[in-house]
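Checklist before submission:
- one chain only
- standard amino acids only
- sequence pasted in full

Submission:
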Amino acid sequence: MKKQTKFLGIAIIGILMLHSCVSSKGIDYKTKNEQEYKVETENKLDHSAWDKLLKKHVKDDGLVDYKGFKSDGDQLNAYVTYLSENKPNENWAFEEQLAYFINVYNANTIKLIVDNYPVKSIKDVGATISPFLKKFIRIGKKELSLADVEKGILQKMNEPRIHFAINCASISCPKLLNEAYTAENVNQLMDKAAKEFINSKKNAISEDKAELSEIFKWYKKDFLKQSESIIDYINQYAETKINKGAEITFIDYNWKLNDVD
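Returned file contents:
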């Protein structure tokens, strides 16, 4: 049974990766280069509507008031439509594109839950294989899934901090910040998200042992693009530094909905 479960998991991951690579074609995005983030970047899009919704319905601890979002469904749908009608192009700065796709992922995740609320977990949302493969996100004329946005675009932008910025509506996820990402603040907010997640109770870090979120196992290759080891990457943000060669284990992921109730 364990072998069958492991095989199924590998098969699903393979489908996710293949699916996203095909579906994300035709949407412009840039990859991070060796240059620093721009000190001054002009915002091309207005994310203030999303910012207001986040401040109203997301607690400081990251728990989400989905009932509140549902009551403001018109505003949420209007923002999602705004994103779909303003797809990025090659003239956008990297920071503008990155903020856009993070907000696309997070806003549409909230919408997916709200449209199916009440649910106990995002995994309870009906889909052929997984809710992450459900094609309900429109960007221009393209229809994408959450997996398309994450694996087909965001991961390819060569910025591993996106794994702390996007939220999959689950307790074990890095918390959803109650502030919208913009071209101007995306670097600062990703740093904040990384520091808060790594030093939260979702990881148990000491000098000689680290019990880590499975995020660091699932996306290890992304983190190793910028650091020699997972420990080196984490130590950039960890308040307690992990010794080289420390024992590393992973904490089972809790997919329970990150609801206030």
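Reviewer check: The beta strands are 137-139, 142-144, 204-205, 209-213, 247-251.
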